[in-house]
Amino acid sequence: MDWIRDSLEKTEKKLEAEAGRMGEKIPYIAENGRYEKDMRDENLSWWTNGFWAGMMWQMYHASGKELFKEAACKTEKTLDRALENYEGLHHDVGFMWMHTAAADYRLTGNPLSRKRALHVANLLAGRFNYAGKFIRAWNLDKTGWMIVDCMMNLSLLYWASEETGDPRYAQIADMHADTAMKEVMRPDGSCNHIVVFDPETGAVTEKPGGQGYGEGSAWSRGQAWALYGFALAFLHTGREEYLDTAKRAAHYFIANIAMTDHVSLSDFRAPEEPVVWDTTAAACAACGLLQIAEMVPELEQGLYRFHGEKILKRLTETHCCWDEVKDGILQYGTAAYHRKEDTHVPIIYGDYFLTEGLLRLAEKGFMIW
Ligand code: GLY
């Protein structure tokens, strides 16, 4: 379709321009059309630090252009310092190294990248709480915390089992997904962001609000993590209950964005005012919807494909900045509902999911998860 080809051409041109000026920098949020801050200085262990490289690998895979590969490799090498430092790393090591080392290994066969990714899979598996059967989130006093976001990190564990022939990683991923199905998901397809367990007994103690509006609300990026994360758990295991959970999350997401012309609010259960958008949630959900469409019987595919495509079309038409002189493509991303300073800004993972989604539609995508 013309709009897909056209959007991809603009994406490639813009990312080429960005890669040309990025150097060794690791970008996060564009301010005034510039990635002013460099995450190497701000926080090298920050959970988003793999997305730039992931986007570069996607573009390298699609275009064969060396500059994309070089940019991705720079970030992977830089992240070795985060690995050596260890402090600050948490459940999101999956996001960080699936997009860097694991992607590199899958595309180039680089043995050092394989070593990095397996090392990180061990760090992730080591966070498993046996009493509650979950991978703990974050650090410090959050010993009993589990969050929906971590569903997206499980692919690293499934990959590690496939790669080594050792089933322990996948076993941990399955147990975490089972607990998430039971405690994170709600019967109506919405989900909690956070579930707190007693880390000694494994009993659930509370389900507080997180990056959304508050307790009991429906943070849209969390909904997208659930939708895509359970779809990926099904992809790696073939377990129907994961696909059913992904579909339930998808139906909840689709029903909600229907009210806002396929752009997501930051929370689907927030007051009407202020209006807080989060386009990153929509872009991530679109990728999850397209993934579901690939895995369900033919007669079911239309629903997921239609809405995944519609979200991406809408975002490219009305929420993207295609000016190559400016950094950041997808506008109106929001990191957390109450975090005013990071509201309605271009965020690196928004661009990543937009790129992945467009490449999926063009059948040029690389499966990073
Ligand atoms: N913690 C991951 C996110 O902000 O979505």
Topology:
Elements: H1 2-22, H2 39-42, H3 51-63, H4 66-78, H5 80-85, H6 93-108, H7 111-125, E1 128-129, E2 134-135, E3 145-147, H8 154-164, H9 168-184, E4 194-197, E5 204-206, H10 220-237, H11 240-257, H12 279-295, H13 298-318, H14 348-361
Antiparallel strand pairs: 1-2, 3-4, 4-5
Helix pairs in contact: 1-14, 3-4, 3-6, 3-14, 4-6, 6-7, 6-8, 8-9, 8-10, 10-11, 10-12, 11-12, 12-13, 12-14, 13-14
Bound molecules: glycine.
Glycine binds next to loops.
Could you describe the 3D structure shown?
The chain has 369 residues and is mainly alpha-helical. Helix content is 55%, strand content 4%. Strand 4 (194-197) and strand 5 form a beta hairpin. Bound molecules: glycine. The site of glycine has 4 residues, from loops.
